[in-house]
UniProtKB/TrEMBL annotation:
Classification via Pfam families: Methyltransf_11
The organism's place on the tree of life at top rank: Eukaryota
Primary gene name: Mettl7a
Keywords: Membrane, Transmembrane, Transmembrane helix
Methyltransferase type domain sequence ranges: 75-172
Bilayer-spanning residue ranges: 6-32
Protein's name in the database: Methyltransferase-like protein 7A
InterPro entries with a match to the protein in the record: Methyltransf_11, SAM-dependent_MTases_sf, Thiol_S-MT
Sample GO molecular function, one term: S-adenosylmethionine-dependent methyltransferase activity
Length: 244
C-alpha cells in the first residue's frame, strides 16, 4: 500500500510541477498568503452553514468561563476571517491572532457585522510564540481548523495554557486523520503533500486528539464526528473543550 501511495504522490508532483517550482524559488509562500484569505472567505460561508449546529453546540457554554465582571476575555487563535464571531456571547472581548496579515480586511468586515462583540486588537503572529499576550490574561482561547496548519501543535498548546487563566478553557474544532482502515485515510495520505502546498500548510493526516490528550489540561471533553461537509477528505472532525 505504501508503494501505491508513493506512486500516486509522484503523479501529483508531476502534475503540480509549476507550483513546486514556484515553491522551490521561494515565490509560492507569497502567492499562497494572498490567495488563501480569498479562498477562506468563501469556504467559511459554506462551512458555517453545514456546521452551524455543531458550532452552536460547541460554543453554548462559553459564558460559564467569564470572569467576575461577567465579560468574557477571548483569544481567537488563527482567526482567519473571523468565522466564529457570530457564535460568541454579547460583550465578549475578542483578541485575534494570525500570522497572515492579509486577513485583516476580512476581520474588519466580520467585526462590522458583529456589533455585539467588543473587539480588542489583531496581533500578527504565529501561535507558537504569543509574547504579545500576557500570562493568564484570557478566560477562553478558541482554535478552529488551525491545529492542522501550525508548525508545532505541541508548542501552540503550551502557549494556550500560558495565556489562559487558571480554570480557563480552550475550545477547538478540527479536521483530523480518518480511521486507518478506511479509503478516506488512503486518499488523505495520497493527497497530503499537494494539499499542504495548496492550502497554506494544512495537513489532512494530523491526529490532533493525541496532542490534546498529552497537553496537560485538567479536564478534556472531546468528541469524534463525521462532519456533515461536502468535502469527504475533511469530514473526520474532533471538537470540544479543555480546561486548564
Ligand atoms: C483553515 S484557516 C481557519 C481560520 C479560522 N479559524 C476558521 O475557522 O475559519 C487556518 C488559519 O490558521 C492560521 N495559521 C496558520 N499557521 C498558524 C500558526 N502557526 N499560528 C496561528 N495561526 C496559524 C492561518 O493563517 C489561517 O488563518
Amino acid at each position: 500500500m505504501a508503494f501505491v501511495i508513493f506512486v500516486l504522490q509522484l503523479v501529483l508532483y508531476i502534475l503540480l510541477f509549476p507550483m513546486y517550482l514556484l515553491n522551490f524559488l521561494g515565490l509560492w509562500n507569497w502567492i499562497c498568503k494572498q490567495w488563501f484569505p480569498i479562498f477562506l472567505s468563501r469556504f467559511t460561508v459554506k462551512y458555517n452553514q453545514q456546521m452551524a449546529s455543531k458550532k452552536r453546540e460547541l460554543f453554548s457554554n462559553l459564558q460559564e468561563f467569564a470572569g467576575p465582571s461577567g465579560k468574557l476575555s477571548l483569544l481567537e487563535l488563527g482567526c482567519g476571517t473571523g468565522a466564529n464571531f457570530k457564535f460568541y456571547p454579547p460583550d465578549c472581548r475578542v483578541t485575534c491572532i494570525d500570522p497572515n496579515p492579509n486577513f485583516e480586511k476580512y476581520l474588519i468586515k466580520s467585526i462590522a457585522e458583529n456589533r455585539h462583540l467588543q473587539f480588542e486588537r489583531f496581533v500578527v503572529s504565529a501561535g507558537e510564540n504569543m509574547r504579545q499576550v500576557a500570562d493568564g490574561s484570557m478566560d477562553v482561547v478558541v482554535c478552529t481548523l488551525v491545529l492542522c496548519s501550525v508548525k508545532s501543535p505541541e508548542q501552540i498548546l503550551r502557549e494556550v495554557r500560558r495565556v489562559l487563566r487558571p480554570g480557563g478553557a480552550f475550545y477547538f474544532m478540527e479536521h483530523v486523520a480518518a480511521e486507518h482502515s478506511t479509503w478516506n485515510y488512503f486518499w488523505q495520505q495520497v493527497l497530503d503533500p499537494a494539499w499542504h502546498l495548496v492550502f497554506d500548510g494544512c495537513s489532512l493526516t494530523r491526529e490532533s486528539w493525541k496532542t490534546l490528550e498529552r497537553a496537560g489540561f485538567s479536564k478534556l471533553r472531546l468528541q469524534h464526528v463525521q462532519a456533515p461537509l461536502s468535502w469527504v477528505l475533511v469530514r473526520p472532525h474532533i471538537y470540544g473543550f479543555a480546561v486548564k
